[in-house]
Amino acid sequence: MAVTIDSGKCTGCGACAEICPVDAITVGDKATVDDDTCIDCGTCVDECPTDAIEL
Predict the structure, then answer these.
(1) Given 3.40.50.300, 3.30.565.10, 1.10.10.1800, 3.30.70.20, which CATH number is that of 4-54?
(2) Half-sphere exposure of 47 (CA within 13 A, CB side)
(3) Parallel/antiparallel/unpaired status of strands 31-33 and 25-27
(4) Predicted structure pTM score
């Protein structure tokens, strides 16, 4: 599996980065995921208020 972030839905709020247990998400204007660090736990998917993240 791989986490994908829909940049059209992402507001850059940072909720996903705050909850990520392995610090795989970086937020600038939009969130980005480091695929090498991500463990596909899905925590960010549940935390995203705009449903911009999918596994």
Answers:
(1) 3.30.70.20
(2) 17
(3) antiparallel
(4) 0.89
